[in-house]
Amino acid sequence: MQPHPKVRAVQAALDAATARDGSGGPATVRLLPEAVHTAAAAAEALGVPVGAIVNSLVFDADGAPLLVLTSGAHRVDVPRVAASVGAARLRRATPEFVREHTGQVIGGVAPLGHPAPLRTLVDTTLAGHAEVWAAGGVPRAVFPTTYAELLRITAGIPAGVA
Question: Which backbone phi and psi does 58 adopt, to 5 degrees?
Answer without folding.
Answer: -100, 130
